[in-house]
Amino acid sequence: AQSVTQLGSHVSVSEGALVLLRCNYSSSVPPYLFWYVQYPNQGLQLLLKYTTGATLVKGINGFEAEFKKSETSFHLTKPSAHMSDAAEYFCAVRLSGGYNKLIFGAGTRLAVHP
Amino acid sequence: NAGVTQTPKFQVLKTGQSMTLQCAQDMNHNSMYWYRQDPGMGLRLIYYSASEGTTDKGEVPNGYNVSRLNKREFSLRLESAAPSQTSVYFCASSEPGGGGTEAFFGQGTRLTVV
């Protein structure tokens, strides 16, 4: 069965610093991978996704993620944090082959300090 | 463009009461999902419907029932609410599309069972 592990339930960075949120997945078949962001009292919004092709994926708000099959990872990065990036971030996986269920990690809450 | 609409946004129930959470999407998606979100546990799938007329259990189906009323609507029912069902509930929809399509989320229903 596939699963998703997000290392670090809380990450704190200074404004302007690098953001790195870690996600590892387990899957016996090629996965589709997603990062979602949730702002307080709101639903989830897609940041970016990996399906096939280029392993470095760019998303909204300056975020990007790299799919590394050998490491079964899909870490999310942003070169320079902004105060508005403070939110909770979720990594999710869906198996290829028409399997519809999205499985989420436990989430990482990002705090950005001035 | 409304996307995914959930009602109500907030609800307080007494233990043993029943209620139905409503969800409707206007994106003509075939697949719909119900998740619950609890602190430190991410989003856990309760039930999903791959297409109109079909429903399947997710990770945590006990205590819930669902109805896929038509292509647009997917409701979640709690027959006898328990305090353990206090949570934030999210409805989502997507195209099945072989797995690479993202899910779109509603704004959530915050349910408290006392």
- Return the string of H and E elements of chain B: EEEEEEEEEEE
Poorly predicted sequence stretches spanning 5 or more consecutive residues of chain B? none
Computed over alpha carbons, the radius of gyration of chain A is 14 Å
Mean pLDDT over all positions of chain A: 90
H/E order of the elements of chain A? EEEEEEEEEEE
Helix content of chain A: under 10%
Derived structural class of chain B: mainly beta
Mean pLDDT of chain B: 92
Total helix count of chain A?
Answer: 0
Give the proportion of residues in helices of chain B.
under 10%
Protein model, in words:
Chain A is an all-beta fold and 114 residues long. Chain A contains no helices and eleven strands. Chain A has strands at residues 3-7, 10-14, 19-26, 31-38, 44-50, 56-58, 64-68, 73-78, 87-95, 103-104, 108-113. In chain A, the strands form two sheets. In chain A, strands 2, 4, 5, 9, 10 and 11 form a six-stranded mixed β-sheet that branches. In chain A, strands 1-3-8-7-6 form a five-stranded antiparallel β-sheet, with no helix packed on it. In chain A, strand 9 (87-95) and strand 10 (103-104) form a beta hairpin. Chain A is globular, with a radius of gyration of 14 Å. Chain B has 114 residues and is mostly beta strands. Helix content of chain B is 0%, strand content 50%. Chain B has no helices and eleven strands. In chain B, strands 2, 4, 5, 6, 9, 10 and 11 form a seven-stranded mixed β-sheet that branches. In chain B, strands 1-3-8-7 form a four-stranded antiparallel β-sheet, with no helix packed on it. Chain B starts with a strand and ends with a strand. The mean pLDDT of chain B is 92. At the A-B interface, strand 4, strand 5, strand 9 and strand 10 of A face strand 4, strand 5, strand 9 and strand 10 of B.
Question: What are its keywords?
Answer:
heterodimer; A: 114 residues; six-stranded mixed beta sheet; five-stranded antiparallel beta sheet; 11 strands; B: 114 residues; four-stranded antiparallel beta sheet; 50% strand
